[in-house]
Amino acid sequence: MSTLYEQLTSETYKSTFFDASAPHALIDVRQPDEYAEARIPGAVLIPLGELEARIAEVPTDLPVVLVCRSGGRSAMAAELLRSKQFSGTLYNLEGGTMGWVRAGNAYDSGEA
Question: pTM score, two decimals?
Fold first, then answer.
């Protein structure tokens, strides 16, 4: 991969991974209270501040889609993973969870 990560729109994520049930890991790097408020179904919470210590939980054998509230922290998460020699395929979800929700897509809420 020539870039740190690829940008992925909510529409492309939905058609390529979500609706297709394609194998992937969806990692939400927000804080627990944000995650409880609204999250994309199937998202696993690993807050950005814990990511480096929990890097072993990020699969290298599946595409990894990183998501936050609007796309900024997830881009930072991708950069962090690459700086630690993470070799898997990384995507950053443009617009984050709020973009997903605004587009009318299904979401979960409450404690995980």
Answer: 0.95
